[in-house]
Design brief:
39% of the residues lie in helices and 19% in strands. The chain is an alpha/beta fold and 244 residues long. The protein has a single domain (2-12, 56-234), classed as SPOUT methyltransferase, trefoil knot domain (Alpha/beta knot, 3-Layer(aba) Sandwich). The protein has an 8-stranded mixed beta sheet with strand order 4-5-3-2-1-7-6-8, with helices on both faces. Helix 7 links the parallel strand 6 (152-162) and strand 7 (180-185). Helix 7 (165-171) crosses helix 9 (213-227). The longest helix is centred in the last third of the chain and has 15 residues, at 213-227. The two termini are 28 Å apart. The structure holds S-adenosylmethionine (SAM). Residues 156-158, 184-185, 187-192, 205-207, 210-211, 213, 216 line the site of S-adenosylmethionine.
Length: 244
Amino acid sequence: MLHVVLLETALELVPTEITAKKLIQKQASLRRKKPNEILLDQTYHGQAMTQLLNGHKRGRPDILFFCLQSLLETPLCKSGFLTIHIHLYDGRIIEVNPSVRIPRNYERFVGLMEQLLLVGQVPPKGTALLKVIQKDLSTLISSLRDGYDTALTLLAVEGGHETRLGGLLSLIPSDISIPVIIGIGAFPHGDFQLDIQGFFDLHIELDTEVMMAWHVCSEILWLYALKNDITSKRRSFNSQQNQF
Ligand SMILES: C[S@@+](CC[C@H](N)C(=O)[O-])C[C@H]1O[C@@H](n2cnc3c(N)ncnc32)[C@H](O)[C@@H]1O
């Protein structure tokens, strides 16, 4: 199983410290919402965000949008060998149902995320496609290890151990039941909090320059699918199904 954990994701509602700002009040009223019911977004709130602690790491919901588009609905995801969790800046964790179809339209994605953060799950009733769960990051990673001492925990980070694609391919266990847990920062700038780094055994750097989080997601996902020959597994499963 491949478990992707998007870390310190720059997704949150406008925090109380800046809800009184005129620009935010206006934007909210145009959308017929309260200021603390809309997503924080650097594009619109950049100036107000200079007042926020760690403002440079926050208010980039588009990063999550592209990461989810890269991971969901892929052959690996459809095969049931992928889980995705979204760890937020405030420490809350969102569980992603692998069968969710994220809107292709960014405005609709924003509305969905606002509902998720306000209500705690989407859809609000019935089977959750996205849900805030009562776990912290440490508990989540322990549960994803699923009791395997051999589980691999990787953190993708600039300054980590220089790792080539071939090296990464050989790190991935051949036994698909052994969990591989990869942490990827879903924030625009800055470093991981120190305690977060400690949850991952191996820190890997995949390029000499900073990469987009969604490119890192894609690289890991497709490499993992290659190592486990997911296409062949899917073909043989489909041909067995067709025999009945
Ligand atoms: C835009 S970066 C965030 C910038 C931040 N300086 C950092 O490295 O964490 C988004 C995420 O992509 C991953 N990433 C970016 N460049 C990388 C690289 N060269 N090697 C490995 N992972 C990288 C990291 O997980 C990072 O948190």
